[in-house]
Amino acid sequence: MSGGELAWIAGCIAFASFAQTLSGFGFSLLAVPLMTLVVSPRDAVVVATILASVSTTSQSLIDRKHVDRSIAKRLILASYAGMPFGLLAFIFVSETGLRLVLGVVVVSAAVLLLRGFQLRDDSHSFDWLLGMVSGFLSTSTSTNGPPLVFLMQARQLTPSTFRATINTVFAVVNVGALALFITTGKVNSNNLSGVAVALPALGAAMCIGYAVRRNITQERFNTLVILLLLISAISVIVSAFTT
Length: 243
Fold this sequence. Notes:
The structure is a single chain. By secondary structure, the chain is an all-alpha fold. Helices cover 81% and strands 0% of the residues. The protein has helices at residues 3-23, 27-35, 41-62, 69-92, 95-114, 125-140, 145-154, 159-183, 189-213, 218-242.
């Protein structure tokens, strides 16, 4: 990668890391489409997955006292069940088609949340279903957040519980996604150079994000989640037509 490409990657990662620290999600949804303006989609997915692992693991440890462990456990198990199917899609299916479908689904989820949709599912069937969808997206597009965001927001979790729980799920799932990428030869020196350059930017953005999030109320948090979902959907759809 050239110096300009590496600088762009670092900037994308800083922006995505700041947004993810505030909201608990959005890292890959924001970083991957932006990075694909200068690097291949597959390199962008690998770079985002590696750096997302660092970000989510750090935040899950810092915020661990707020985790809803029962929800996290179900979503982690379901995500791992869906990941092999996502890897097959990553290898064989058109990424343009996957991103178009993802963009439409994310917009639909944001509209439902805007209309006050809530989940009252004592059987937890939605946890298992959306967890599997998230796992599929994790290894196919590196954008596994939307199903989990929709689920947790519809369950009306507090901001602290939302962030801690979703980051815990992301952290554990990213380990599996990375293992699959490594065993299938998707990690190489080219995308690792992007990771090395962007790590300092990620750390700095996280520190700023933690300082700013103290001022985010429940109402502001709800607005931020829906706004970030819509921005992410637009970004994904645009990237489907430009990469």
